[in-house]
Design goal:
The chain is 38% helix and 12% strand. It is an alpha/beta fold. Helix 14 links the parallel strand 9 and strand 10. GO terms for molecular function: beta-glucosidase activity.
Length: 476
């Protein structure tokens, strides 16, 4: 595409999350969150999937989030490096338990408010717009232990109080907000997604969809509040994106892919349209789900989001014959291996055309502006003898995806901005590793938590700086 350009004012930047970067997990009055309880190693997945009845800290385990990359103490240095790249936007999240350590208090923790205010002011100093996720996979543990997390309707009130506190405390500093990160992930990874741990003999689907309903009502409610506090506020939902391809043209495979896409888009349908989709009742009937919906919920849900934000790392592939034996363990959203695509070291297929397809599909479905808030290549980086990190593989991945974004814009899709994931190396949410690196900035830390935490720009740092300066024209 020759003459298509990124729009003026396009928001180039990068993304991190509090639980994967901040560390300082008990400093400044912060309470424990779900991610603080997820260890590195063989016990990680059972906790993430909600299979552990009582989740407690174990002195014999290593918890990567406890120190992470120490953004809490190093944010000024980090934001200065992002500014050097030319960032227009910085996606980050607020740790709910820094503002309300238990989650159900009446009065917020002033130290938490002061910390984030300082971070946002630092961003503004460099002309960087914060894009802030209110809940990025970190529910206060007190709410899990005391109320059962999002299975309990009381969570709506607690989240409303938390969100209102943030909208008021950071008014004038933050205008772009996301409610829940990758809301659809709670179906695949209930504890990390929504603080859900299952009791014996529970209908898991009933618990997950009821929890999701509470999140959807909460999201709509705080979207309304954000607009009331400041009409300039823009609120988005957030989808773990990636189109499902049929494995073959066999009609059963095509139908399965459609079903998997619907499962993925289910919550975004509600957040974008303001009501449950027509196919919802059949899904609930098949899964034995009977939602407890209050009459006022239908009216609340009509407060729809302003834009659709999404992550895209890879496309997915679905077959009517999918089973445990033939789906990739690389991602919590199960997918069959696509024989036409190369994969990363962690088994995630590399498919830039899939991004264009996903963007067109989302815009066709919702007709709302899109914001690509996560994308990138997790890879092992090595420092050469001269101290440089030549991550050409990452540049190649990002270049092809920027080109795909440009193609989608040419197709008529409005795109607000682009924030590649883990712009500073951080703890991987999936595995808890540091070796699965995404960043433009290398952080000296290993999987066991050893290292100086020193920051070093990679080759991709200088490449992305050129991309931003040229508004996506110079991709060489």
């Amino acid at each position: 595409m020759s003459d298509i350009k990124f729009p003026e004012g396009f928001l180039w930047g990068g993304a991190i999350a509090a639980n994967q970067s901040e560390g300082a997990y008990r400093e400044g009055g912060k309470g424990l969150t779900t991610v603080d309880m997820i260890p590195y190693g063989e016990n990680r997945m059972p906790v993430k999937l909600g299979q552990v009845d009582k989740v407690e800290l174990d002195a014999d385990e290593f918890y990567p989030s406890h120190q992470a990359i120490d953004f809490y103490h190093r944010y000024k240095e980090d934001i200065a490096m992002l500014a050097e790249m030319g960032f227009k936007v910085f996606r980050m999240s607020i740790a709910w338990a820094r503002i309300f350590p238990n989650g159900d208090e009446e009065i917020p923790n002033q130290a938490g408010i002061d910390f984030y205010r300082s971070v946002f002011e630092e961003c503004k100093k460099y002309g960087i717009e914060p894009l802030v996720t209110l809940c990025h996979f970190d529910v206060p543990m007190h709410l899990v232990n005391e109320y059962g997390s999002w299975r309990n309707r009381k969570m709506i009130t607690f989240f409303e109080r938390y969100a209102r506190t943030c909208f008021e405390a950071f008014d004038g500093l933050v205008k772009y907000w996301l409610t829940f990160n990758e809301i659809n992930i709670l179906l695949a990874s209930p504890f990390s997604g929504a603080g859900i741990a299952f009791q014996e003999s529970e209908n898991h689907d009933q618990v997950k969809y009821q929890a999701a309903h509470h999140e959807l009502v909460a999201s709509a409610l705080v979207t309304k509040i954000a607009h009331e506090i400041n009409p300039e506020n823009q609120v988005g939902c957030m989808l773990a994106g990636g189109q499902f391809y049929p494995y073959s043209c066999k009609p059963e495979d095509v139908f399965t892919a459609m079903q998997k896409d619907r499962e993925n888009l289910f919550f975004i349908d509600v957040q974008s349209r303001g009501y449950y989709p027509s196919y919802a009742q059949k899904v609930f009937d098949e899964k034995g789900v009977k939602l407890d919906i209050h009459e006022e919920d239908f009216e609340i849900l009509k407060n729809t989001v302003d834009f659709i934000s999404f992550s895209y790392y890879a496309s997915r592939c679905a077959s009517a014959d999918m089973n445990e034996g033939n789906t990739s363990a690389a991602n919590v959203v199960k997918s069959i291996k696509n024989p036409h695509l190369e994969a990363s070291d962690w088994g995630w297929v590399i498919d830039p055309l899939g991004l264009r397809i996903t963007m067109n599909s989302l815009y066709d479905r919702y007709q709302k502006p899109l914001f690509l808030v996560e994308n990138g290549l997790g890879a092992k980086d090595t420092i050469d003898e001269s101290g440089e990190i030549n991550d050409d593989y990452r540049i190649d991945y990002l270049r092809s995806h920027v080109e795909a974004m440009k193609d989608a814009i040419a197709d008529g899709v409005p795109l607000m901005g682009y924030t590649p994931w883990g712009c500073i190396d951080l703890v991987a949410a999936s595995t808890g590793e540091m070796s699965k690196r995404y960043g433009f900035i290398y952080v000296d830390r290993d999987n066991e938590g050893n290292g100086s935490l020193d920051r070093t720009p990679k080759k991709s740092f200088y490449w992305y700086k050129k991309v931003i300066a040229s508004n996506g024209e110079d991709l060489a």
